[in-house]
Amino acid sequence: MVKSDIQNIKLRFGIIGNAEGLNRAIDIAMQVAPTDLSVLVTGESGVGKESFPQIIHQFSRRKHGPYIAVNCGAIPEGTIDSELFGHEKGAFTGAISDRNGYFAEANGGTIFLDEVGELPLSTQARLLRVLESGEYIKVGSSKVQKTDVRIVAATNVNFAEAIADGRFREDLYYRLNTVPIKVPPLRERPDDITLLFRKFASDFAEKYRMPSIQLNEEAKHILVGYSWPGNIRQLKNITEQISIIETNRDISPDILSTYLPDMSSNNSKLPAFVGLRHGDNNMKSFESEREILYQVLFDMRRDVTELKKLVHDIMNERAGGQHPVNNDVSQRVFHDSAMNVISGIPMVMPQVQQLPTVNKLQPVGNVSINNHDVTSDYQDTEVYVEENLSLDDVEKEMIKKALERHNGKRKNAAADLKISERTLYRKIKEYGLD
Predict the structure, then answer these.
(1) DSSP code of residue 325
(2) What is the C-alpha separation between 312 and 76, in angstroms, rounded?
(3) What are the C-alpha distances in Å from 35 to residues 50, 132, 191, 331, 365?
(4) 213/216 Cα distance (integer angstroms)
(5) How does pLDDT run across 104-163, given as a tens digit for each residue?
(6) 3-state secondary structure 245-292
(7) How far apart are CA 234 and CA 268, in angstroms?
(8) Disulfide engineering: 69 pairs with which of 112, 115, 222, 356, CB 3.0-4.6 Å?
(9) This prediction's pTM
């Protein structure tokens, strides 16, 4: 399809954006529209999946027939069969008359099943029969009904997981997924974010009869760098909030940041673990910075356990008068180990045979060790360690080094630290690294 055709469709259905993934989804919708194939539209919540069934219906031979959109996730499980397929009088308590379902009402047209992944298994079996033969039975009836409908479904459910968990029928999935259309999330359309913001700002300015809000360049960088978990719906809501609340129509990064939920707000004091890369196998199992912290703490505990064993062996040797150990060296062993674990650098232990010799044992940390009974006094090396490491200092140093590596370019530094540009901007101000 030529670009002008895609642009006309965008104008007709109010679709904004020029991302390649979005244009591809529109192209597929237009190509499949003249057929009667079932279509499955997938994508995260808030990406605008509801526009594509309308495109398919309007450019199909059924465009003069009915178009019915059903939110499957909003209908209670006990009534979903009645809503979709209808019921006979007396089929259940409250069924005081016969009722046609959506499939009867949409005969000759298109039915859009939104959130189809939320359907109960019993309803999935009924829907599969409709897809295979166009037949269904009303609730409380034994008579087979026929319907001629085009089914377009949409969901944000991961079908691979749902099928593996037994929550969705595999045969129904393949029936629905005859032609798949994937709508990309907003974070994969960075150039479209400012376009959408300007459109929403203009609409709200007209709606509330006030000047339109404008973003300065730094604010635009933050807007584009944000992950937008709620996608277009979230962007629209935030634009409306700013339009109503802010009297200053020139929006700065400080103003914008107050409206963007910080996805790492619970972990705002945690260091950025630059030692962990997306290519590492360990990163595949991490879903949040909190999990990364837990993993690092577990690794640190394991390494401390190994250090305990090493120091215990050294002390046993000292008890035999072979290799006394200096307190400064033992302190450095623990400090360097902690720093190396946090930064993701493999630990390098000093060689025991290189330790200096002293005449008597020195206190380690805040605890003194007597020569007469080293083994009995040594219960747990952790009591000899006084941890003075500040996570804020570590985080500040890592941010500083990342900025130096990228010549002060915050966007590149944020990508290196695996944090959002907005979070980096806030950290720079917090630590006075401007």
Answers:
(1) -
(2) 64
(3) 19, 16, 33, 74, 78
(4) 10
(5) 999 999 999 999 999 999 999 999 999 999 999 999 999 999 999 999 999 999 999 999
(6) HCCCCEECHHHHHCCCCCCCHHHCCCCCCCCCCCCCCHHHHCCCHHHH
(7) 22
(8) 112
(9) 0.61
